[in-house]
TrEMBL record:
NCBIfam families xrefs: PRK00420.1-4
A Pfam match: Auto_anti-p27
InterPro entries: SSSCA1
Lineage: Archaea, Thermoproteota, Thermoprotei, Desulfurococcales, Desulfurococcaceae
Name of the protein in its database record: Sjogrens syndrome scleroderma autoantigen 1
Amino acid sequence: MSSQDPIKIMAELLKSGAVMLAETCPVEGCNLPLFKLKSGEVVCPLHGRIHVVKTDEEVKEVYSRAALSMLLEKVESTAIRAIDSLISEPDIDSTEIIKWLEVLERVARLKIIAKKRNIP
Ligand SMILES: [Zn+2]
Protein backbone atom coordinates (compact mmCIF):
# COMPACT_ATOMS: atom_id res chain seq x y z
CA MET A 1 0.00 0.00 0.00
CA SER A 2 2.87 2.41 0.77
CA SER A 3 3.90 2.75 -2.89
CA GLN A 4 0.47 4.11 -3.78
CA ASP A 5 -0.50 7.75 -3.78
CA PRO A 6 -2.31 8.42 -0.48
CA ILE A 7 -4.41 11.16 -2.14
CA LYS A 8 -5.72 8.59 -4.62
CA ILE A 9 -6.46 6.15 -1.81
CA MET A 10 -8.26 8.89 0.13
CA ALA A 11 -10.39 9.63 -2.92
CA GLU A 12 -11.19 5.92 -3.24
CA LEU A 13 -12.11 5.76 0.45
CA LEU A 14 -14.46 8.74 0.16
CA LYS A 15 -16.02 7.28 -2.96
CA SER A 16 -16.70 4.03 -1.09
CA GLY A 17 -18.63 5.95 1.55
CA ALA A 18 -15.89 6.26 4.17
CA VAL A 19 -15.96 9.33 6.40
CA MET A 20 -12.90 11.47 7.00
CA LEU A 21 -12.24 11.92 10.70
CA ALA A 22 -10.74 14.85 12.59
CA GLU A 23 -8.10 12.51 14.02
CA THR A 24 -4.84 11.86 12.25
CA CYS A 25 -2.84 8.65 11.91
CA PRO A 26 -0.88 7.87 15.11
CA VAL A 27 2.04 6.39 13.13
CA GLU A 28 5.08 8.64 13.51
CA GLY A 29 5.62 10.99 10.58
CA CYS A 30 2.34 10.02 8.91
CA ASN A 31 -0.27 12.52 10.12
CA LEU A 32 -2.70 11.64 7.36
CA PRO A 33 -6.36 11.98 8.25
CA LEU A 34 -8.05 8.78 9.35
CA PHE A 35 -11.13 7.41 7.65
CA LYS A 36 -14.01 5.55 9.15
CA LEU A 37 -15.30 2.82 6.85
CA LYS A 38 -18.94 1.83 6.58
CA SER A 39 -18.02 -1.27 8.58
CA GLY A 40 -16.93 0.98 11.45
CA GLU A 41 -13.25 0.19 10.96
CA VAL A 42 -10.86 3.13 11.16
CA VAL A 43 -8.11 3.16 8.55
CA CYS A 44 -5.17 5.30 7.49
CA PRO A 45 -4.80 5.69 3.70
CA LEU A 46 -1.18 4.55 4.04
CA HIS A 47 -1.11 2.25 7.04
CA GLY A 48 -4.45 0.50 6.80
CA ARG A 49 -6.35 -0.48 9.89
CA ILE A 50 -5.62 1.68 12.92
CA HIS A 51 -6.91 1.29 16.41
CA VAL A 52 -7.76 4.73 17.72
CA VAL A 53 -8.10 5.21 21.40
CA LYS A 54 -10.09 8.38 21.82
CA THR A 55 -11.23 8.86 25.37
CA ASP A 56 -10.08 7.95 28.84
CA GLU A 57 -12.98 5.54 28.96
CA GLU A 58 -11.67 3.71 25.92
CA VAL A 59 -8.13 3.65 27.29
CA LYS A 60 -9.53 2.06 30.44
CA GLU A 61 -11.59 -0.36 28.36
CA VAL A 62 -8.58 -1.49 26.30
CA TYR A 63 -6.47 -1.79 29.43
CA SER A 64 -9.05 -3.68 31.45
CA ARG A 65 -9.67 -6.09 28.58
CA ALA A 66 -5.96 -6.92 28.38
CA ALA A 67 -5.72 -7.20 32.16
CA LEU A 68 -8.81 -9.40 32.28
CA SER A 69 -7.58 -11.85 29.65
CA MET A 70 -4.18 -12.04 31.35
CA LEU A 71 -5.85 -12.73 34.68
CA LEU A 72 -8.11 -15.38 33.15
CA GLU A 73 -5.10 -17.19 31.68
CA LYS A 74 -3.45 -17.23 35.09
CA VAL A 75 -6.55 -18.48 36.90
CA GLU A 76 -7.10 -21.13 34.25
CA SER A 77 -3.58 -22.54 34.50
CA THR A 78 -3.74 -22.47 38.30
CA ALA A 79 -7.02 -24.40 38.25
CA ILE A 80 -5.67 -26.97 35.80
CA ARG A 81 -2.55 -27.47 37.92
CA ALA A 82 -4.67 -27.83 41.06
CA ILE A 83 -6.95 -30.42 39.47
CA ASP A 84 -3.95 -32.23 38.08
CA SER A 85 -2.36 -32.59 41.51
CA LEU A 86 -5.70 -33.45 43.16
CA ILE A 87 -6.44 -36.36 40.83
CA SER A 88 -2.96 -37.80 41.32
CA GLU A 89 -3.43 -38.04 45.09
CA PRO A 90 -4.32 -41.45 46.52
CA ASP A 91 -7.46 -40.13 48.26
CA ILE A 92 -9.28 -38.14 45.64
CA ASP A 93 -11.02 -35.14 47.16
CA SER A 94 -13.90 -34.69 44.78
CA THR A 95 -15.28 -31.58 46.50
CA GLU A 96 -11.97 -29.82 45.91
CA ILE A 97 -11.93 -30.98 42.29
CA ILE A 98 -15.48 -29.75 41.76
CA LYS A 99 -14.52 -26.37 43.23
CA TRP A 100 -11.71 -26.00 40.72
CA LEU A 101 -13.90 -27.24 37.88
CA GLU A 102 -16.35 -24.49 38.77
CA VAL A 103 -13.49 -22.02 38.56
CA LEU A 104 -12.65 -23.34 35.08
CA GLU A 105 -16.28 -23.06 34.03
CA ARG A 106 -16.41 -19.46 35.17
CA VAL A 107 -13.15 -18.69 33.38
CA ALA A 108 -14.59 -20.13 30.17
CA ARG A 109 -17.71 -18.00 30.53
CA LEU A 110 -15.70 -14.83 31.23
CA LYS A 111 -13.51 -15.57 28.21
CA ILE A 112 -16.58 -15.59 25.99
CA ILE A 113 -17.74 -12.29 27.50
CA ALA A 114 -14.27 -10.76 27.04
CA LYS A 115 -14.25 -11.92 23.41
CA LYS A 116 -17.67 -10.43 22.73
CA ARG A 117 -16.50 -7.09 24.07
CA ASN A 118 -13.75 -7.16 21.45
CA ILE A 119 -16.26 -6.78 18.66
CA PRO A 120 -16.63 -3.07 17.91
ZN1 LIG B 1 -0.69 6.43 8.58
